[in-house]
Design goal:
Chain A: InterPro entries: ABC_transptr_periplasmic_BD, Bact_iron-sidero_bind. Chain A: It is found in: Cell envelope. Chain A: Keywords: Ion transport, Iron, Iron transport, Signal, Transport. Chain A: This is Iron complex transport system substrate-binding protein. The complex is a heterodimer of chains A (about 325) and B (about 325). Chain A is of the alpha/beta class and about 325 residues long. Chain A is built from 16 helices and twelve strands. Chain A starts with a helix and ends with a helix. Chain A is globular and about 60 Å long. Chain A has a five-stranded parallel beta sheet with strand order 5-4-3-6-7. A five-stranded mixed beta sheet of chain A has the order 10-9-8-11-12, sandwiched between helices. In chain A, strands 1-2 form a two-stranded antiparallel sheet. Chain B is mostly helical. Chain B has one domain: ABC transporter involved in vitamin B12 uptake, BtuC, CATH 1.10.3470.10. Chain B is built from 15 helices and no strands. The relative contact order of chain B is 0.17. Classes of the chains: A alpha/beta (about 325), B mainly alpha (about 325).
Chain lengths: ~325, ~325
């Protein structure tokens, strides 16, 4: 009977109708706690979530971080870039978690197997995937850009999880820590975040997560990083233009753990060796999974750890 | 072809043109860059150290790159001419037949097994190129394919994409960044350690020396196997040693700059256009045309996406692909 609807879930409304029929079929024991329903504004329209979901699947690192910060242990997530598991910085917090795909592609069967009651997805989730995922559970897709304030998507996820209080508390902790740390850092210093590769470096946009935090701490960024408002990072910068990435501090992000090796490799390049930050020994190798892919309250604390270790005095 | 009386003049003129272009391409490579050091400043920096920024860019960044480009250009150009003569196929090209991909694949495998020494990479790349060469030889022995240039290229293209796919797979599982990966798939001259140009010189020199005794037998081979045998040559032996020679040249070039496609196709094509199909003329000229193509392509690669750079393999592919189509669509494929 409902087969035709399954085949053509053209609008969110139909998806929603399907969802409500699924919810209605849930045994009445769990029905009690799903009493209060709330409307969450997503990129694909308003999605209704009820109660505090407990079977959560998170399809972005940002959502994973948010769920963990809010005290929810998700059942499944996607692997981080260049790895088959979750980012190193959350590894000890996730417990046993199923990997249901990569950032680019979700395995719908694996998600289905987990029987989620809420799916938190990344802002760039394709519509075709959304339509399928939303048949399984209410799917939250923030309508944010990578250069937006990172708290926007986190707050939206928290709203869907029904755990705004927890996230607000983590914001407060962060704000306090940032204020304290900022007081210990000389203002106006230029800090740039880049990924090294032998043909030249890739400069991360200063509007991304790590850049937003550095800005809050009172750092400035190189003009080139500032100009990257539409894209998360630059192309491979010509070695002749390496000075455009220079600053007082240089955070060198590597996706594999051998950060020191990447630094040694970079130092071999004369154009790198003559940067001011390198000459002044102010290059810090940092975890690329955290600095270029991570986002969320937990990631923020870890990045502040990195900065505090070396920059503050 | 034109009458034999004017031939020496044509050859002389071609040499003059190519020598001029070599000088121009070297100058372009030294003076033009993606940065904000203008050609004028760069030219001054060539003989005065007053402008330390320009001096650094020209001498430390552009000069090693130019040297490496010239070296790689010579190796790939000569390898293209030899490979085309040995297979008697005007489409044969180390990049298209899987020789470069073989070298690249071998290096990727060595790196993922834990090697980091540049010197080891060189030997490994030559071995990989050799394996690619023997596959080419094997395929030419297959009935029907050896005599049909286009089918040989199709086999080579299939082999190349397979090797590239495996290389990509290894690099992916090795958790390397996409950028690092790109080098072993497309090739680039930027950011290679300064020593690369010097450490690859012996390989290129060895390949070129091995080439010398092969020129006459290869020229004889162009007349057909029977004639070559009648003239006292051994076609099979000639072919084998030619492929070893190609492997050394391509392996060295790939270890130094990654796989740069189409240069081995463009260079013999241009050389033939200038001085006719005789390998005794094209081979020497290819030693000039190779660097010209590489250096101009590299200069273009710095200008297209300022302040970034394209890998040179992208530029050579843009020049090479139309030439490949032109050769295939030509009224008749030149017999070599």
């Amino acid at each position: 009977m409902a087969l035709a609807t399954f085949n053509f879930p053209r609008t969110w409304l139909r998806a929603f109708m399907l969802f409500t029929s699924v919810v209605a079929s849930v045994p009445s024991a769990s029905w009690a706690q799903t009493a209060e329903a709330r409307a969450v504004e997503t990129a694909f329209g308003t999605v209704t979530v009820t109660g505090t979901p407990s079977r959560v699947v998170v399809l972005s690192e940002n959502a994973l971080d948010t769920a963990l910060s809010a005290g929810v242990k998700p059942l499944g997530t996607v692997s981080t870039r260049g790895s088959t598991g979750v980012s190193r910085y959350v590894q000890d917090k996730v417990g046993t978690i199923a990997i249901v795909g990569t950032a680019r592609e979700t395995n719908l069967e694996s998600v289905f197997k987990l029987q989620p009651d809420l799916i938190l997805a990344a802002p760039d989730l394709p519509k075709a995937q959304y339509e399928k995922l939303s048949l399984l559970a209410p799917t939250i897709v923030p309508s944010t850009a990578v250069t937006d304030d990172w708290r926007k998507s986190v707050s939206l996820y928290a709203e869907a999880l029904g755990r705004q209080e927890e996230i607000k508390a983590s914001y407060q902790q962060l704000d306090q820590r940032i204020a304290a740390l900022k007081a210990r850092i000389a203002p106006g210093q230029v800090a740039s975040v880049l990924r090294w590769n032998p043909q030249g470096p890739i400069l991360m946009s200063s509007h991304l997560f790590a850049g937003q935090l550095l800005q809050q701490l009172g750092f400035k960024s190189p003009a080139l990083a500032e100009s990257l408002t539409q894209r998360p990072h630059s192309d491979i910068l010509s070695l002749e233009n390496l000075h455009q990435a220079d600053g007082d501090w240089l955070f060198l992000a590597t996706l594999n753990p051998e950060g020191e090796q990447a630094l040694a490799q970079a130092r071999n390049q004369p154009a790198f060796a003559r940067l001011n930050a390198v000459k002044n020994n102010k290059v810090i190798t940092v975890d690329g999974q955290l600095w270029s892919s991570g986002a969320g309250p937990l990631a923020a604390q870890k990045i502040l750890d990195d900065v505090e270790k070396v920059v503050a005095h | 072809m034109s009458s034999s009386a004017s031939r020496p003049q044509v050859v002389k003129r071609s040499w003059l043109i190519c020598l001029t272009l070599v000088v121009l391409s070297v100058l372009a490579s030294l003076l033009i860059g993606a940065g904000d050091v203008s050609p004028g400043r760069s030219a001054q920096a060539l003989w005065s150290g007053a402008d330390s920024e320009a001096r650094f860019i020209v001498m430390e960044l552009r000069w090693p790159r130019t040297l490496l480009g010239a070296m790689v250009g010579m190796a790939l150009g000569a390898a293209g001419v030899i490979l085309q003569s040995a297979t008697r196929n005007p489409l044969a090209e180390p990049g298209l037949l899987g020789v470069s991909a073989g070298a690249s694949f071998a290096v990727v495998l060595a790196i993922s097994l834990g090697s980091s020494a540049a010197t080891l990479n060189l030997g490994v790349a030559v071995a990989g190129a050799l394996a690619g060469c023997f596959l080419v030889l094997l395929v030419t022995q297959l009935r029907g394919i050896g005599s049909d240039p286009v089918r040989l290229i199709l086999v080579g293209a299939a082999f190349t994409s397979m090797l590239m796919a495996i290389s990509t797979l290894i690099l992916l599982s090795d958790q390397r960044s996409a950028d690092e990966m790109r080098f072993w798939v497309i090739g680039a001259l930027a950011g290679r350690p300064t020593e690369t140009a010097y450490s690859s010189a012996p390989g290129v020199l060895l390949g070129l020396l091995l080439m010398l005794p092969l020129i006459r037998p290869l020229a004889a081979l162009a007349l057909g196997e029977r004639v070559a045998t009648g003239l006292g040559h051994h076609p099979q032996l000639t072919r084998m040693s030619a492929l070893v020679c190609v492997a050394i040249l391509v392996g060295t070039a790939t270890a130094a700059a990654g796989p740069i496609a189409f240069v081995g196709l463009i260079v013999p094509f241009v050389a033939r256009r200038l001085v006719g199909p005789d390998i005794r003329r094209t081979l020497w000229l290819s030693l000039l045309i190779g660097p010209i193509i590489i250096l101009f392509a590299d200069t273009i690669s710095r200008l297209v996406v300022k302040p970034y750079e394209l890998p040179i393999g992208v530029v050579t592919a843009f020049i090479g692909a139309p030439i490949l189509i032109a050769v295939v669509r030509g009224h008749r494929l030149p017999t070599l």
